Amino acid sequence: MKAIILAGGYATRLRPISYVIPKLLFPVVGKPMVHWTLDMLKKFGVNEVILGVNYLADLLRAELGSTYDGMHVRYSLEKTPLGTAGPIKLASHLTKLHGTFLAMNGDVIADINIRRMLSHHLKTEASITDALHEVMDPRRFGVVELDSAHRILRFVEKPNLNEAPSRLANAGIYLIEPDVLRMIPDDRKFSLERQIFPGLARQRRLSGFTFPGYWFDIGNLSDYQRANFELLSRKAGKSTLQEKRSKVSNRSALRPPVYVGRGSRIESGSSLGPFVLIGKSGQVGKRTRITKSIIFDEVTIGEGSRVDGAVIASNVTIGKNVKIERGSTLSPYVQVGDGVKIGENAVVHPYKEVATNVSPGKHVM
C-alpha cells in the first residue's frame, strides 16, 4: 500500500514555536510527531509514503531523507495551500496509484488497525472509507451519521451540540480508491469534507470505520500537551523512561511519569514530575524543580529554577533561579537571564533575550 501524509499546513495555532519548527517535528514522548505516523504505517505494510509539504519543507526533508525504516519517502510541494483534497491530487502525480491507497492528516496520532480498516473498506465497496473516533465534544470536529451498514449518510462540520448527528468524529485517516482522483481538479484548493464527501454519501459510496484506540488531533498547544501526557502515561505508567546516555543524579527525585531523553543530564537535588518530558541533550541544573512541562531538545535550565506547566522549545537557555509559571511558552533559541520571572500564559517568540520579568499573558516579540 502507498500512503499520502498531508503536512502542508502553517500550524498557525502552534505559533510562535512553529515559526521555526514544523508541526510534524514537534517531539511527542521522545520522537517527532511524524515518526509516530510513519511507524504506524510501516507496521501495516505501507512501503511508499508521499509527504504533501509546504512551510518549512526543507526541515522535514532533512529529518527524514528519502527512506524511513525501509519505506520510500517522496515529497510533494504545495506552492499554495490546496485544502484537504488538492494535496492528494498533487501527490498522485508523483506515483502510480492503481489500487486502494491511504491518505491522512500529518497532525494525527492514532492507535488504529489499518488491516481491519482495509478489510471493512473492501467489504463495503466504498470509494472512500473514513476512520471515525468517538469524542466527548463534537463541536471541534466534523461528525457523521451512519446507517446500519456503516455507510456515512451525512457529514456535519463543527456542529452545535444540539445539531450533532453523533459523537463520531472524522479522524483524518482515509482509504481511497483511485477513481476519486478524477473528482479532484488540478492546482486548485479543494476540500474532501465539503466537496467530495457529500456526493459520495448520496451515492452510498462513503463508508465509516470506527476504531476504539487512542486518537489525538494535535491542532494547538493544549492538544499537544494532552497527547504527550496521555502517551507518556501509557508508555511509562508509574515509572520513568530514561534513554541511553542520559544521566540522572541519585540525589534527584523523579515523580513518574517522567521521560528523560538521550544524552540529557539531571543534576543533584532536582525534582522532576509528575508529567515531565525532557528531550535529547538537555541539562537540568542542581536544585531545579519541573512539573507538568514539555522540554524540547538541547535545553539548558540553570540551578535553582522552577518550571511549572510550560512548553519550552529547542535550544533554549534558562539561567539560574528563573521562575516560569503555568501556561507559558518559550520558543526556540530563547535566552532567559538569571532571576527572571515569566508569568502565567506568557509567550516568548524565537531568538529573544529576556533579561527582565515578563508579565502574565504578555508576548515578548
Topology record:
Elements: E1 2-7, E2 27-28, E3 31-32, H1 33-43, E4 48-53, H2 57-64, E5 67-68, E6 71-77, H3 86-92, E7 101-105, E8 108-110, H4 114-124, E9 128-134, E10 142-146, E11 152-157, E12 168-176, H5 192-202, E13 206-210, E14 215-217, H6 221-236, E15 240-242, E16 247-248, E17 253-254, E18 258-260, E19 265-266, E20 271-272, E21 276-278, E22 283-284, E23 289-291, E24 293-295, E25 300-301, E26 306-308, E27 311-312, E28 317-318, E29 323-324, E30 329-330, E31 335-336, E32 341-342, E33 347-348, E34 353-354, E35 363-364
Parallel strand pairs: 1-4, 1-7, 4-6, 9-13, 15-18, 16-19, 17-20, 18-21, 19-22, 20-23, 21-24, 22-25, 23-26, 24-27, 25-28, 26-29, 27-30, 28-31, 29-32, 30-33, 31-34, 33-35
Antiparallel strand pairs: 2-3, 5-6, 7-12, 8-14, 9-12, 10-11
Describe the structure.
This protein has 365 residues and is of the alpha/beta class. It has six helices and 35 strands. An eight-stranded mixed β-sheet has the order 5-6-4-1-7-12-9-13, with helices on both faces. It has an eight-stranded parallel β-sheet with strand order 15-18-21-24-27-30-33-35, with helices on one face. The mean pLDDT is 94.
